[in-house]
């Protein structure tokens, strides 16, 4: 609205201003509607989790699954990239996030392969919640989960959120045995210094770098690879779609891969079926 006022003040094309105003209002209205609908989504069982396998680069055995939220409202499917930001701005992500964590723990409790982990995306907003550590702890106890099987994915933005007790919180989680991953690495404001000070377990290189691995992406992948040796974290490549990408990543020494080449996110029943198995045959070592 402020932009439009400024635009109008400068006396430029009033009819275009009207157009933008209309669009803005439409967007705002649909956001408010979605936010209201999201209030009932949990109670109406409109939310569910799907799980995308993460494989060992060498053997292509499934090591973990990333839990990803899906929202289906009647026949309408709303993308996480649309509703997660809305839920973050309204604070609804806190309750939704606890539901996600509980579902992940329930799934873990029923998974036969003891060594399989589940990775959960935790929003900055939820990380800031006073109850966060206590609730995570309670879930692990309730479902008798080995904490090493729970991975928490946070984005670089967490490290610029100004939380004073951030390091303590991360340390506490890791002391329980929980593993911490940095998601979408490389897309945020540089967190190299942060990684240096924290003992991060996994770094997930954003798929935008993997998609241009045959071009400029390779330099980034190699740089992160070098860092991983000195800072002692493991690397997951996100968004691996082709065998060529997979082989390049393998040759770089990347530890784990995730992407449509191996599997789309799958339903919970398929987690039980796939757990502990191998996806695709590994490429020959000589390639
Ligand atoms: P993310 O955490 O980076 O998750 C990976 C996204 O990449 C997923 O999109 C996944 O479906 C997609 N993806 C996986 N492999 C490939 C591939 O080979 N090619 C391409 N093009 N895409 C691939 P999705 O499920 O739409 O989720 C989008 C984002 O929404 C997630 O990005 C995450 O930031 C957020 N999100 C999803 N579930 C949750 C949740 O439970 N809590 C929170 N706070 N955020 C969530
Ligand atoms: Mg993620
Ligand atoms: Mg990611
Ligand atoms: Mg990403």
Automatic annotation (TrEMBL):
Domain of life: Bacteria
Record domain EAL: where: 31-279
Name of the molecule in the record: GGDEF-domain containing protein
Full protein segment contained here: 362 to 648 of 649
């Amino acid at each position: 609205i402020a932009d439009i006022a400024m635009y109008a003040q400068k006396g430029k094309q009033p009819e275009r201003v009207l157009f933008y105003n209309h669009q803005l209002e439409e967007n705002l209205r649909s956001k408010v509607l979605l936010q209201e609908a999201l209030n009932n989504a949990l109670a109406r069982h409109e939310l569910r989790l799907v799980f995308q396998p993460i494989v060992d680069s060498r053997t292509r055995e499934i090591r973990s699954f990333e839990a990803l939220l899906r929202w289906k409202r009647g026949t309408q499917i709303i993308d996480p990239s649309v509703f997660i930001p809305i839920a973050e701005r309204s604070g609804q992500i806190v309750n939704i996030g606890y539901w996600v964590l509980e579902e992940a723990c329930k799934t873990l409790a029923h998974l036969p392969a003891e060594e399989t982990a589940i990775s959960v995306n935790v929003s900055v907003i939820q990380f800031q919640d006073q109850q966060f550590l206590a609730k995570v702890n309670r879930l692990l106890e309730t479902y008798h989960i080995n904490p090493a099987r729970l991975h928490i994915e946070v984005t670089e933005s967490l490290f610029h959120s100004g939380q004073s007790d951030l390091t303590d919180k991360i340390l506490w989680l890791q002391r329980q045995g929980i593993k911490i991953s940095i998601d979408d690495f490389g897309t945020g404001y540089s967190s190299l210094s942060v990684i240096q000070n924290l003992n991060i377990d996994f770094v997930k290189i954003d798929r935008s770098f993997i998609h241009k691995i045959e071009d400029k992406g390779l330099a980034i992948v190699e740089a992160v690879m070098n860092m991983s040796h000195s800072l002692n974290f493991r690397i997951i490549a996100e968004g691996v779609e082709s065998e060529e990408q997979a082989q390049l990543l393998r040759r770089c020494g990347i530890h784990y891969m995730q992407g449509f080449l191996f599997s789309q996110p799958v339903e919970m029943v398929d987690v039980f079926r796939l757990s502990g198995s191998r996806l695709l045959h590994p490429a020959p070592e000589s390639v």
